Automatic annotation (TrEMBL):
PANTHER family: GLUTATHIONE S-TRANSFERASE KAPPA, THIOREDOXIN SUPERFAMILY PROTEIN
Residues of the DSBA-like thioredoxin domain: 3-204
Name by which UniProt lists this protein: DsbA family protein
Pfam families membership: DSBA
Length: 238
């Protein structure tokens, strides 16, 4: 069963929600039957940090709150992250445009390393004070993923995977995404936000049980009734 997740690597709740979902999956007996597919989303697609703006400055200006309120807000989020083993360092976190980071995720997905790319980018942004809009940072992450760095460099120097990112964002509008993280299970049920682990377990279990029942109750339809040119335990028919 497929779980699609619209997410932005600039979003701390997406990182926390990832952990909550992962913990939920470890407690479910059918976890190996779940296919995770990350989808791009940008919280602020027009943003570019050209003046070395801090996260507190960014939040203060973007949300119309004081620096003290911004710090208080992030303290609460950091505590949520700490509960699931994340060290969210908002003091050093660098606000950045995430478009190229999303392109890198799509490139990693083409090599079967999408989930790991998400993880490394979250860690780089929230725990390692790295600018995820910086090409050199993205190439370091590509190298840590054991991706071909020359190929990654060519991707980032071009507009490759840009359409895939834009399509994900377009698709988010079609499925009703109003904020991230946004988890869609089997295109039937949605869960918004960094919900508690038990909420993930309940939602995934319900979706999986319905998906499995549908697979088992829908017999395959043959396109013809000719049994020639087949083999079974008794031999082959020609």
């Amino acid at each position: 069963m497929k779980i699609e997740i619209w997410s932005d690597v600039m979003c701390p709740f997406c990182y926390i929600g990832k952990r909550h979902m992962e913990q939920a999956l470890t407690e479910l007996p059918f976890k190996d039957s779940i296919d995770i597919n990350w989808k791009s989303y940008q919280l602020n697609p027009a943003y570019h940090n050209e003046d070395g703006e801090s996260l507190y400055d960014y939040l203060s200006k973007n949300k119309g709150i004081s620096l003290e309120q911004a710090k208080q807000m992030t303290t609460q989020v950091a505590a949520m992250g700490s509960n699931v083993g994340l060290n969210l360092d908002f003091e050093t976190s660098i606000p950045a445009n995430s478009f190229d980071a999303h392109r890198l995720i799509h490139f990693a997905a083409s090599k079967g390393k999408q989930d790991l790319a998400e993880e490394y980018l979250f860690k780089a942004h929230f725990e390692e004070a790295k600018n995820i809009a910086d090409t050199n940072v993205l190439l370091e992450i590509a190298s840590s993923l054991d991706l071909d760095t020359e190929e990654a460099k060519a991707v980032l120097a071009s507009d490759k995977f840009a359409e895939e990112v834009r399509f994900d964002i377009y698709e988010s509008q079609q499925v009703g995404v109003r904020g991230v993280p946004f988890f869609v299970m089997d295109r039937k049920y949605a869960l918004s936000g960094a919900q508690p682990v038990d909420a993930f377990k309940q939602a995934i279990t319900q979706s999986y049980n319905e998906w499995k029942a549908a697979q088992e109750s829908t017999p395959l339809k043959s396109l013809n009734t000719n049994s020639d040119n087949t083999c079974d335990e008794n031999g082959c028919e020609i």
